[in-house]
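Postdoc handover notes: sequence design on the structure in folder B. Input tokens:
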């Protein structure tokens, strides 16, 4: 169990089927869809070679383009920055190229089963990620209010932490039918999933995470709520999520998305890059040896500056070079706010309710800072205490979360000095990388007064504040209370037979559109929805033995709340 404060997942029978991000909003088996030998569908031969714009070269855009290419269409990918989006892996100037830092996504749960399909497809390896108190983490230090506790297991922490764990378990059971839903998800019991979730959506859409805790007798103690917010479960403290909708949190804990994490060996950006270069063996229309890279002459087209609807209900795309192209279908995978700011958009692109949903999108800020070090010195033992010299650290100080990353005792290593969200992230925004590093070293120096971290640093820090990245403006979407209806509009946009004829042809996909934002699995799932939508737009069909998400939509459509 990787949780600092365990959640109710611990109650699950070890022999139960493995969990997947299977609902609860849209319980469709994307992993089965991908694994089926019949493939994702086919389009009429008369449509082969037709161009489809794919705007955004992150994971969602690359997967959408890859699958559309396999069907015989010609994706035209536009990317303003670099292939990968928030799967961004960087090196350190002047250091061994094997030393890398994950500026965006860095840990992936096994429940990301559709994502795992593509990880396996391109031959990437994963390994356990060193979350707090996980088996991959030799030790963890929890430092709150100036008092530090060293732990190798949860049992090494004071009783109050186990009390908080019990309170969280009880809160989930009492307020969210946790065990029942977790069991239904494992068994892929769609009727039961929908029955439980419909009731909870209606009851909890207006509730914050913090309000959900406060409503539970198990969390009547402010001290327990404070500790839970600062230390949390799985990846650490969750107080930055306290203002968000509790439905967002339930989607995570039901599917164990915050647990048992794996990292991609060599960096997560390899996944979209390898898909970009991959030459599929099963491909229609295009000759063997075709890849996305070869269709684009090696590089995607540049940033999109304008999107309009033109005669014949076409989507016309203008890029930064001034080039103008018109398409019968397009997929937009960037963050929604780009359509409101960086790209000049025609109002006719979407129904007004969808524009409203995009305008209401709420983003979480996030920042990280990494430094390269000469070796994993933290594994040295303190002569007086026998403990690790330094540990994975959770604290209420400015750094909040510090992660120690190595490839072996005799190799250079990396420290993520700080990983923060929301208000904690904004505190770093005005500071340069070196200024950030100095503040972080000071904070950690107060926790580890006898450890000279600076003496081990062998290169300049690398940092990111996603809210300051011009093509992102935030790390990921997180719904506030009352936002369920907005998210439903965006997620279901791929079902365009339900839209007026003059609002079809442009499909939304990507992290913003998914129910599980902040997890790469959501980007994969919405890409596959868009692929189905484009296929349908061109008169294509799925194999009867492998129905796509649009084919079964009416059976499993997300709960619809009244609009009045």
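Designed sequence:
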């Amino acid at each position: 169990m990787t949780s600092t404060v365990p959640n109710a997942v611990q109650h699950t029978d070890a022999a139960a089927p493995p969990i997947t991000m299977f609902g609860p909003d849209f319980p469709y088996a994307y992993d089965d869809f991908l694994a089926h030998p019949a493939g994702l569908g086919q389009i009429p031969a008369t449509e082969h070679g037709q161009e489809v714009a794919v705007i955004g070269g992150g994971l969602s855009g690359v997967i959408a383009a890859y699958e559309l290419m396999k069907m015989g269409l010609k994706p035209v990918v536009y990317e303003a920055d670099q292939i990968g989006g928030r799967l961004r892996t960087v090196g350190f100037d002047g250091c061994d190229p094997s030393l890398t830092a994950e500026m965006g996504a860095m840990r992936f749960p096994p429940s990301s089963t559709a994502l795992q399909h593509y990880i396996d497809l391109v031959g990437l390896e994963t390994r356990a990620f060193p979350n707090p108190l996980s088996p991959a983490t030799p030790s963890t230090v929890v430092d709150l209010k100036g008092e530090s506790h060293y732990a190798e297991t949860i049992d090494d922490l004071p009783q109050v932490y186990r009390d908080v764990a019990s309170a969280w378990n009880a809160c989930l059971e009492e307020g969210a039918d946790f065990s029942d839903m977790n069991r239904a998800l494992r068994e892929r019991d769609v009727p039961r999933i929908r029955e439980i979730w419909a009731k909870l959506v209606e009851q909890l859409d207006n509730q914050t995470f913090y309000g959900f805790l406060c409503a539970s007798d198990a969390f009547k103690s402010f001290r327990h709520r404070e500790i839970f917010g600062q230390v949390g479960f799985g990846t650490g403290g969750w107080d930055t999520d306290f203002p968000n909708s509790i439905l967002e949190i339930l989607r995570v804990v039901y599917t164990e998305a915050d647990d048992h994490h794996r990292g991609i060996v060599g960096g997560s950006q390899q996944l979209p890059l390898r898909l970009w270069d991959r030459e599929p063996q099963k491909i229609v229309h295009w000759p063997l040896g075709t890849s996305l890279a070869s269709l684009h002459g090696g590089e995607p087209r540049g940033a999109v500056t304008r999107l309009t609807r033109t005669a014949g209900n076409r989507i016309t795309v203008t890029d930064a070079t001034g080039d103008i192209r018109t398409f019968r279908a397009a997929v937009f995978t960037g963050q929604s706010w780009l359509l409101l700011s960086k790209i000049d958009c025609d109002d006719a692109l979407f129904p007004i309710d969808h524009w409203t949903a995009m305008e209401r999108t709420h983003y979480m800020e996030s920042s990280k800072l990494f430094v390269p070090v000469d070796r994993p010195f933290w594994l040295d033992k303190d002569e007086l205490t026998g403990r690790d010299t330094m540990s994975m650290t959770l604290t209420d100080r400015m750094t909040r979360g510090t992660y120690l990353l190595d490839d072996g005792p005799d190799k250079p290593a990396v420290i993520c000095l700080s990983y923060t969200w929301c208000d904690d992230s904004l505190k770093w925004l005005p500071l340069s990388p070196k200024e950030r590093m100095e503040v972080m070293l000071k904070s950690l120096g107060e926790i580890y007064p006898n450890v000279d971290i600076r003496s081990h640093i062998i290169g300049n820090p690398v940092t990111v504040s996603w809210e300051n990245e011009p093509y992102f403006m935030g790390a990921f979407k997180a719904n506030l209370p009352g936002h369920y209806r907005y998210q439903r509009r965006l997620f279901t946009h791929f079902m365009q037979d339900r839209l007026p004829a003059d609002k079809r042809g442009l499909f939304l996909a990507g992290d913003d559109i998914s129910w599980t934002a902040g997890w790469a699995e959501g980007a994969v799932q919405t890409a596959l929805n868009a692929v189905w939508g484009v296929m349908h737009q061109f008169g294509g069909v799925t194999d009867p033995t492998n129905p796509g998400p649009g084919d079964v939509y009416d059976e499993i459509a997300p709960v619809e709340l009244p609009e009045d």
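Context for whoever picks this up: The longest strand covers residues 413-421. Don't rerun without checking with the PI first.
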